[in-house]
Amino acid sequence: MASKIHIIVKIVAACVIPMTVFSKRYLPNWESLDTRPLPPWYDEVKIGIYIHWGVFSVPSTYCGEWFWYEWQTGQCKECVEFMNKNYKPDFTYADFASRFTGEFFDPNQWADIFKAAGIGYTAFVAKHHEGFCNWPSKYSFNWNAVDIGPKRDLLGEFSAAIRSRTNITFGVYHSLYEWFNPHYLDDVNNNYTTQHFIKKKVLPEMYELINKYKPEYLFSDGDWMVDDFYWNATEFIAWLYNDSPVQDTVVTNDRWGKNIRCKHGGVFTCHDKYNPGHLIKRKWENAMTIDKQWAGFRRNAPLSDYLAIEELLAVLIETVSCGGNILINIGITHDGLIVPIFEERLRQMGAWLDVNGESIYAARPWSNQNDTLTTGVWYTSKKQESGLSVYAIIQNWPTGQTLTFGAPITTSKTTVSLLGYPNKFNWVPASPSGGIVIEMPYIPISRMPCQWAWVFKFQNLAN
């Protein structure tokens, strides 16, 4: 069901804003770039998958994807002890690259898992701060997945599988920053008055990435050390919006300089796990992790470090209720596996969306995000042929014979149903000024529509 909803959503979204809206030329300044409307597909699909995979997947232990930096700088004592105990003194981080094998990487299997999960778009890590490219970049000699390690174009294979087997929008994550790149360190020593790193590496690499793979979502990162002038951000984004092969459909974020986050750019991602908890004027994204500590896969992570499905759904529901998208991260093993804990969470989410996706996909914030009387309730809404439908999503099934909501204002035509359950519910007004009391029938466990988080649908409300 989720995949069917997704197909319909993408068709509708493509028709919402005529492409003539995108025919204007944008100037390389934020005043102009910020006038570009958000391509509608992004707000419709709601859920993205964030995939961390790189050389850091080989040590896959303390500090996750930040292992190299934390070890080399000595900031992670556990990382230093791990290396001293398990590797020879002359072992370097580059030596891990040959052990980044990817022999079990099956992009078709990944695509099928993401489709079953109800995912709408991807943010595959093309390059993290370690500088290793998961595609054969001409600007990353011998530090990419074709020259060393898997000897495969990981990004290309993944893109082909996503596009051939699903309706999921293909997108990438790309770090501007590289911890130990000599060109970058030269610019740092020059107090960022030079741009050797930008001109020789960053900009050529990004143009190559967009022209070759045509991602329709670009999650930029690694911007926080210096203002946007150093990254030449406005120059690149103007090209992205005006002349790139994805100029009409691409979505990007706000990580283009330490002075830009949460102020300019595309979707606001502000910081990792960003969640304002209320409506804001701009579209935003919650880039979060199933592993509570790190994004890269950790072999030594205890079960308690992983979100339970109830916790994952709680973040999803709150995020969508407040107008955001959720970008759910999983870490991949060095040999290319999605480990069972991640696959289980994704498939559990997909099973929930099969029943309740109507309240998530293409939904909009309602007049209330939380309920005024009952805690743990989040609202979404959607315009349908029959009128406005309002969805109240509860995370705890009521133990009594009634369930009260304070926010809805009823009319004589109001109806109440539970997504996935065949019968309508009886109700009475909570008070003359508003609210509703729902009579809760006995529902056998075998007839419950889902195991976690239930969605009540209201139609014909006064508000």
TrEMBL record:
Q: Which InterPro entries does this one have?
A: FUC_metazoa-typ, Fucosidase_C, GH, Glyco_hydro_29, Glyco_hydro_29_N, Glyco_hydro_b
Q: Which EC number(s) are documented for this chain?
A: 3.2.1.51
List the catalysed reactions.
a neolactoside IV(2)-alpha-Fuc-nLc4Cer(d18:1(4E)) + H2O = a neolactoside nLc4Cer(d18:1(4E)) + L-fucose; a neolactoside IV(2)-alpha-Fuc-nLc4Cer(d18:0) + H2O = a neolactoside nLc4Cer(d18:0) + L-fucose
Q: Does the keyword Signal apply?
A: yes
Cited SUPFAM superfamilies: (Trans)glycosidases
Which residue intervals define the domain Alpha-L-fucosidase C-terminal in the entry?
369-458
Keywords per UniProt: Glycoprotein, Glycosidase, Hydrolase, Signal
Entry annotated with the keyword 4Fe-4S: no
Looking at the record, the residues that make up the Glycoside hydrolase family 29 N-terminal domain are 22-358
| GO MF annotation terms | alpha-L-fucosidase activity
Q: How does it assemble?
A: Homotetramer.
Q: Which family, according to UniProt?
A: Belongs to the glycosyl hydrolase 29 family.
State the protein's purpose.
Answer: Alpha-L-fucosidase is responsible for hydrolyzing the alpha-1,6-linked fucose joined to the reducing-end N-acetylglucosamine of the carbohydrate moieties of glycoproteins.
Per its record, how is this protein called by name?
A: alpha-L-fucosidase
Q: What is the lineage of its organism?
A: Eukaryota, Metazoa, Spiralia, Lophotrochozoa, Mollusca
